[in-house]
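From the pipeline queue, job 12 of 40. The input is one protein chain; the requested action is below.

Action: predict structure.
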Amino acid sequence: MESGDAGATSVEREEGLRKHAVERIERKQKFLRDLVLYLLVNAGLWAFWAYEGADTNDLWPALVSGIWGIFLAHDAFRAYGEGPISEQQIEQEMRRIKSG
């Protein structure tokens, strides 16, 4: 149920806001996990490339890093992650949603 529905009770609106806040926090946490994975995998790819001779005419890790980085940047614009979801974070996110 949308938080702006005219027929919704305040409890339903609050539940909708809470659900939306939890989804936003989860998206932020997913971004952080994806960022860590990106850094680890790309560090490994570049280390492997360097170990194999670091041929400057064959920069295949740059292609992987660049394409994946574009998708990661898109996710960064959608969400910025924090630690575990707390009740305080949910309430804070709900206040942000209400205000605008």
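Job complete. Residues 10-99 form one domain.
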